[in-house]
Amino acid sequence: MAGRVSALFGMNVFGDALGFIRDNPHLLFDRALEQLWLALAALAVSIALALPLGAWLGHRHRGSLFAINTANVGRALPTLAVLALGIVVLGLGVGFKTNLLALVVLGVPPILTNAYVAVDRVDPEPVGAALGMGMTGGQILTRVELPLALPTIFAGIRVAAIFIIATATIAGAVGGGSLGAIIVNQAAYGLDGVFGAAMCVALLALLVDGILWIVQRLLTPRGLRGRTAQPTYDTPIGTLAEAGAR
Amino acid sequence: MLIRTHRRHGIRAAIAATLVVALTVGAGVAAAAPAKPTIKLGTKDFPEEFILGQLYKQALEAKGYKVQFKKNIGSTEIIKTALYSGKIDMYPEYTGTILSVIFKQAKSPASAQAAYNQAKAKLGAKGFTLFAMTPFSDTDAIAVLKSTASSNGLKTISDLSKLGDKLTISALPEFQTRSAGLLGLKSAYGVTNGTFKPIPQIDPYATLDNGTATAVDVFSTDPQLASGKYTVLTDPKFIFGFQNVAPIVSKKLAAQLGPQGRRIIDAVSAKLTLPAIIAMNKAVSVDKKSDAAVAKAFLKANNLA
Amino acid sequence: MIALAAAAAPSAPVIPDFGPTDPCVTGHHLFCPGWVHDNWGSTIQPALLQHIKLTAIAVSVGFAIALLLALAADRYRPLAPPFGVLAAIVYTIPSLALFQLLVPLTGLTVTTVEIALASYTLIVLFRNTLTGLQSTPPDVLEAARGMGLSDPQMLVRVRLPLAIPAIVAGLRVAVVLTIAEATVASFIIPEGLGFQIREGIRTSFSTGILTAGGLAVLLAFTADGLLVLLQRVLTPWSRRWRVA
Questions:
Q1: pLDDT tens digits for A185-229?
Q2: Which of A34, A127, A131, C112 is the least crowded, having the fewest Cβ atoms under 10 Å away?
Q3: CB C22 within 8 Å of CB C34
Q4: Minimal Cα–Cα distance from A39 to chain B, Å?
């Protein structure tokens, strides 16, 4: 009996939530856009910081311990703690800057690790050939290694993107802005608003991941699909960075 | 041989049956005997409520009652749902808030006693009763930095209109939709300028200190107000009303508690004067002591636990 | 303005000394070890234990389900992609949203939190368990069959034990993930280290944040280390000694 009642209640909330979405398209759209914009900015900064460093370390085959473990450490940091540190310890208060900081802290590790692993494990043959042709280190990195490493690098960017979208929700929950602000504000938006915003967040995350999945498949030339670590359903997940690369 | 075995089995069966009957009757007697009820106590989502919750919880437990404590349920709107649905049967509430938020009464009561009586009457119709109220009243208040007040000549809430677009008000999200909130600011004081920035669960005084807000919604019993850094704007129209605390208790639980149980709770409420609650707020919010430890010390000092 | 009620208290209350004020705390210093010491038993340790409990239940339930799914997918290959996709979809949904989507069904309770947390572990645990099961070296399988072992016997005596490294690798990832995600659970139930972090945000208390956050990270590394040890215990055959 209780089960049937709660199932009915669930159905009601779903219907009400759809109603909320229908009645408040601008609100949800604005907040979703806010979240995307924040996520995009954070992703851009993360790539700018992590990609050059990771690629360079991989090119020199140095710093493996640091580069590989960064991803593990990064995911072990609770997003709430990173936000809290920004707000209180660094005294930044609540706002775009703090959110950006927290998101970048979480976005950098997977990109760094994947960039390192990707460049480090590039097939030595083309690298050797390029060396033989007289290319400099920098030229080898940019013209040979990076293109070959691109699919795995992109996998890391995809992982970072998902972490960032998820964290942006929490950032909004703590300090306002993004769809997260609606999710924690049952007092103002009601249960249907909270549920509706949660549905929008889920959809947003799936959409972003879906688009990036398509881009990743497009970026992986057929010839390389066997060589690079293209995850299928039976490849093991050894590190947290791989956990996101489905 | 077989007949003898059957007889032995027969005796065993008779003994077993008697035991079962005896145990059932005994259990029934035990169940029928008036046992102390278990109290499902909840609190709202800020430190003063946590302290009040701990005070009532520990006082009841000291007298042998079992308390299922649900701390930090949420804002008034959320905890009201929990109360009405039976998830909790008791929580400490502010008399003014009962009228303005739970029953959406627009007209403010004329005195603290009137607020209590009206609240009790309205709750009675819903199946709840109100136990004795505390001496202290804790109203919302609008605070600004002392420097802001002196440089802009702010004394009362209506003075906020002087700030024009520079005004940023920060408060819990529900402040936007309450008459003891933004709506009251607009209708009673004509404050329509500036922007509202919700701060779900962040220290409002910090937002004043770091400049992200010009004016914030605080509580009149906040210990930070004693520091001298902040000015509280006066509320001559009493939009924030009278706010003594009284425990809302379901009529069913009240009946189970009886006068004996009620006396325990009322004894705690009687000791909560303004100096007492401010001291406890200071210990928890400023000195960061745990609310449970502070409540324990207070109850012990007053022989209530 | 503060309005006092008309009713006078029968006798004024005794306001005890709640303990000495810690200048470190009132001075808003970065970290106050004194506060940690004073509040360990009443506040910090219970939060830590709640957090451990939340994580343990979530990972155990997640592993049980993932194991069943992996065994099923091992039997019937076509099941692998749909299970994988489903788990991946759940994993992509941000935790705060997933919690709220479950609330109408299971309320603001520990159950809601556990369902969501367990779901997040599925993708890792399912994939790793399945991989582990399917990567038994063919010559070992041949030898086992040669010894006359039936399929179930092979599973229990050969394939599962050999899958332990992959399974433990998955458990390590799942545990660290869950410990971090469990902090978000504080938006649903006031338990765990996440609640302490949010309290720290609400009261601008850096010590509280650093303590709770630091404990979460420490917990993650400890759990990870323990699982590595567990793996060594469970796979004594993998200790190889180099013969000079």
A1: 777 787 888 898 999 999 999 999 999 989 888 877 665 544 434
A2: A131
A3: yes
A4: 21
